[in-house]
Amino acid sequence: MLKKKIQTAFNKQLNAEVYSAYLYWSMSAHFESLNLKGFASWMRIQALEEMTHAEKFFNFINERSGRVQLTAIEGPPTEWDSPLAIFQATYTHEVKVSGMINKLADLAVAESDHASQVFLQWFVNEQVEEESSADAAVQRLKLAADAPGALFLIDQELGQRVFVPPAAGA
Ligand code: FEO
User: For 106-161, what is each residue's pLDDT tens digit?
Assistant: First the structure.
């Protein structure tokens, strides 16, 4: 049985994961408007991943006989100044999410909820990858700043990303 405190915090994180999907979907729409199809596709896959994160919380809350309570999703920004600004915002957002996950891990320890601690480990590892991939794109876009042709190469490369759903039970 999930303690009320953890249930409330997990429902809040479920909302935050759906917001992340919304944010990346909005970024994808922005890239579509610039006809940068590779970046747009990368962001759409990022949004899909975020929905699998939300679903993990949905499933875990139910498995622990808790109650999923969905709340309104805040509207994301719709415009950014440049592809670099978008990936900088992505990196900043992922650092913020890492902080949220760390706080949840602290709460699970404080509440002696070992099952939640194990569950959250997946997210702790995932956040390392999330920050790293956003930061890699930021660094490459900075290098490309003085070479417009490079932007299209990065667009093509990011367009190669494929959606890989997390393994069942992972
Ligand atoms: Fe759900 Fe991008 O972390």
Answer: 999 999 999 999 999 999 999 999 999 999 999 999 999 888 799 999 999 999 99
- Of 83, 88, 77, nearest to 36 by C-alpha is 83
Give the C-alpha distances (Å, rounded to integers) separating 23 from 29, 48, 77, 139.
10, 11, 7, 21
Q: What domains, with CATH codes, occur in the chain?
A: 4-158 (1.20.1260.10)
CA of 15 relative to ligand 1 center, distance in Å: 12
Residues with CB under 6 A from ligand 1: 17, 20, 50, 53, 94, 97, 130
Question: At a CB cut-off of 8 Å and minimum separation 6, what does 165 contact?
Answer: 52
Place of tokens 């956040």: 127
d(CA 167, CA 131): 21
Atom 1 in ligand 1: residue holding the nearest Cα: 50
Q: How far is CA 90 from CA 4, 14, 21, 117, 129, in A?
A: 31, 18, 11, 26, 13
